[in-house]
Specification:
This protein has one domain. The protein is built from 3 helices and 7 strands; from the N terminus they run αβαβββββαβ. It is elongated, with a radius of gyration of 17 Å.
Length: 132
């Protein structure tokens, strides 16, 4: 029986699937963010990052219902993924997967200055993170 040699893409996919921790975007928690005021555990986001972009991510169950909504901040002028895109996240210090290793779906994004307008839609406060 002849042994099949995997392609480079197959090899990389298999290696990634066998890693101890899932790959994903590294983020650091900044605590709970008050969407109206911009205050978080460490600083005021609206004062510190006036020009960045806020991404709203949803952790959904298998039926598509939103379990939890979070906000992730990026220094860019636009979100890292298009609306509807998915991304796994990992803790920047430990490299451990977050949200049970499930990818989240980006459901909204806006300039940081517009985020207070989203409080009625997503609630007064959200768990907040920043890309690392």
């Amino acid at each position: 029986m002849e042994r099949r040699i995997p392609s480079l893409d197959e090899f990389i996919n298999e290696a990634n699937n066998n890693r101890r921790y899932n790959s994903g975007a590294a983020v650091a928690s900044i605590g709970t963010l008050n969407l109206k005021t911009g205050s978080s555990k460490y600083f005021n986001v609206y004062e510190t990052w006036p020009d960045g972009t806020a991404e709203i991510w949803a952790n959904k169950d298998y039926n598509g219902n939103i379990i939890k909504t979070i906000v992730v901040f990026t220094a860019g002028k636009k979100s890292m993924k298009p609306i509807g895109g998915t991304q796994s996240f990992k803790a920047d210090q430990s490299d451990r997967p977050m949200f049970e290793g499930k990818p989240l779906e980006i459901i909204d994004s806006c300039p940081n200055a517009k985020l207070p307008e989203f409080a009625d839609k997503y609630g007064k406060s959200l768990a907040a993170y920043t890309y690392k």
